[in-house]
Amino acid sequence: MAAAEPSRTAAEIATQPSCWRRARQEAETVTGLPRPGERVAVVGCGTSWFMAQAYAGLREAAGQGHTDAYAASEFPAGRRYDRMVAITRSGTTTEVLDLLAAVRGSAGTATTALTADAGTPVATAADELVTLAYADEESVVQTRFATTALALLRAGLELHGAPAAGVKSVTDAAVDAELAVTQPLPPELAAAVQWTFLGRGWTCGIAAEAALKMREAAGAWTESYPAMEYRHGPMAITGPGRAVWHFGELPDGLAADVGRVGGHLSAESTARGLDPMADLVRAQRLAVAVAEAKGYDPDRPRNLTRSVVLR
Predict the structure, then answer these.
(1) DSSP for 279-296, written as a single string
(2) Which residue among 77, 192, 197, 198 is least packed, with the fewest CB closer than 10 Å?
(3) Neighbouring C-alpha atoms within 13 Å toward the C-beta of 120
(4) Burial class (CB within 10 angstroms; exposed 0-12, middle 13-18, buried 19+) of 2
(5) Residue 306 and residue 300: Cα distance in Å, rounded?
(6) CA distance linking residue 200 with residue 167, whole number of Å
(7) pLDDT of the residue at 71
(8) Residue 35 burial (CB < 10 Å; 0-12/13-18/19+)?
(9) What CA–CA distance (Å, rounded) separates 41 from 103?
(10) Residue 175 near residue 50 (C-beta atoms within 8 A)
């Protein structure tokens, strides 16, 4: 019997290294990326919000300026920024468009939108438009667009100075991603019945996104937390058949604590120096594998659509 064709989501996941390299090159010429010293808000919904969180952590760690991340629906009215960056794959997400409309005309606030489709309403809602059409996706579940948007924003930071201590360049992250798309996943991860994703600093956003991928594609029981919060309650659910996945440098004692209660720890970012964004690629692949093992179609997750349009 011929092997089944890979899902569209799996195929899109595999293209991420090349997408990141292109984003690194384009960062040198695109306009509208935050400049050092600007007070910046980064907004999005769902996956885009988690990429906003990761970028905010990276930008502040690099010392390039105050940076806050918000779900677009929860932006604090009246708070002023030099620049707002909105991430929206579809360019049609209601909450993002409403926020950009509300901000337009605010004294001193420039707006930049990152999208996959220049022919959508966001093109006229923002002052500057950055189109990542090559990273667009057919799958409802976001993978390569989100990470390519983050790669572009990371590259923008690199243009103004070295990455923060312990953070790799986008070029090096793409090299790590080449491994992440091909190396087998540990069977203990695929066989688990529950997954807890952890991060510190900018990787808290990565952890939240990994958990979202598992929920979206596989309908799985997943949670995410800052790593140091794990022992303040979430550890109670860890045990045999349950996995803890950490992005970035592992806190002292965490591995021993997970092992003591019988959980399986995945910490490739620490053990092999894998860039956390590349490690997210492994989590995306796990979500597809778990979905397919359940008989789900990862390209068409239950109860979800490509864009949330509320009117």
Answers:
(1) HHHHHHHHHHHHHHHTT-
(2) 77
(3) 22
(4) exposed
(5) 9
(6) 12
(7) 98
(8) middle
(9) 11
(10) no
Name the amino acid, one letter, at 53: Q
pLDDT in tens, 84-130: 999 999 999 999 999 999 998 777 899 999 999 999 999 999 999 99
Put simply, whether the predicted model's pTM sits higher than 0.85 gets the answer yes
Cα(175)–Cα(132) distance, integer angstroms:
20
Q: Which two tokens stand for residue 254?
A: 């965490």
* Residues ≥6 apart with Cβ < 8 Å to 233: none
Tokens of 144: 């390569």
Q: What is the spatial distance between Cα 63 and Cα 37, in angstroms, rounded to a whole number?
A: 9
Mean pLDDT for the chain overall = 93
Q: 61 burial class (0-12, 13-18, 19+ CB within 10 angstroms)?
A: middle
Is it the case that residue 311 has pLDDT exceeding 70?
no
Buried b (16+ CB within 10 A) or exposed e, 231-260: eeeebeebeeebbbbbbbbbbeebbebbee
Query: How far is 276 from 282, CA to CA, in rounded Å?
Result: 10
Residue 306's pLDDT band, with cuts at 50, 70 and 90, is low
Please give the helix or strand (H or E) that residue 132 lies within, else none.
none
